[in-house]
Write a structure and sequence with these properties.
The chain is mainly α. The chain has one domain. 69% of the residues lie in helices and 0% in strands. Helix 3 packs across helix 7. The longest helix is centred in the first third of the chain and has 15 residues. The radius of gyration is 15 Å and the shape is globular. About 4% of the residues have low confidence.
């Protein structure tokens, strides 16, 4: 590992508890939750809780950080206000991130994500989440 890689890994590990400002993440989710759909929110939560695991390595945390930062960024490749297309870039990146770090999305991460969904939405159709879980 090069000296630059060591410094970068140290910086990632120093900020391991907060990949992005949690308030920004929660604000975007609650603002767009109904438009993006429960699968998108579930995907974001899976990434977030996988990031918080101590067992998740720095390389996976870098991927998660980048994806969540892009998700909450005010500028998008495809603006979120565009009907039907606005969230396609977000959804595509979330899917890429989940498949890439799938080994760190364990049952506890899924449980935490589902509990948060229940807190926000009350009851929801569990079958909607199956397509996300099947990719892991």
């Amino acid at each position: 590992m090069t000296e630059d890689e060591k410094k970068y890994n140290e910086q990632i590990n120093e900020h391991a508890d907060t990949p992005v400002k949690e308030s920004s993440l929660w604000n975007k989710i609650t603002k767009y939750a109904k438009r993006t759909g429960i699968r998108t929110v579930y995907s974001v939560l899976l990434l977030f809780y996988a990031f918080k695991r101590k067992e998740t390595p720095a390389w996976a945390k870098r991927i998660i950080t980048g994806i969540l930062a892009y998700f909450i960024a005010p500028l998008d490749a495809i603006p979120d206000l565009t009907p039907f297309l606005g969230f396609t870039d977000d959804v595509g990146l979330l899917g890429f991130g989940l498949v890439t770090i799938a080994a760190y999305v364990n049952d506890e991460v899924k449980k935490q994500a589902r509990e948060q969904l229940t807190n926000w939405f009350g009851t929801y159709d569990e079958t909607e989440l199956k397509s996300v879980d099947d990719k892991l």
